[in-house]
Amino acid sequence: MFTLRRVIISNSKNAFVRFNSNSSTSSGIPKLGTTPNKFNPKSSAFNLRPILPDGLFYHPAPAAPNPEITPKAFLPKSDIRATSDLYYPEEQLSITNNVKYMPVISKISTPKNYNFDSSIVEKLQSMRDQGKSRKEIKETLNVTDNFISLVTKPNPETQANQKKILAKSARKWSAKTLKAKKLKEEKKLHWERDL
């Protein structure tokens, strides 16, 4: 293998681009590291306008680790290489080395545990009555938000504060919004009474 250092200037559509190919393959064909682009290669990577020099260049596909190797995932099942341990043994090694760096695609759902006795429910209610936040309750008793809502009643002081805030914002509502809200309340009452 020898190194070929050549600078090529190509005149294509009145744009002069300089190519420096300092490596070559064993056959002596100069290797093109990246596809030369008319625009900035970083900011306009999606808008590829290649300006290739005249002549023959060795330009392998960027996805494969080696252009002579096709990853086993892309081989047909009938191909002998797909099941052979001799073909591309580095693939398994690279997978096992990089698994710890791979991001989690989906979270495994953990089964919910609702096997709590009445003492925990009483603790939950007392903490909620004291005005403790859901975050504090979750951390101390290791329960979910949903479980807190199912088992306990909200703090009356917090409810009163929420009603005051709602009444303040209701003063700013238009007549149309007020009418819609009243209609919604009536529908809720009818639904609760099963009318």
TrEMBL record:
One of its GO terms (cellular component) is mitochondrial large ribosomal subunit. It comes from the Eukaryota. GO terms for molecular function: structural constituent of ribosome. Pfam families: MRP-L20 (PF12824). This is Uncharacterized protein. It comes from Pichia californica.
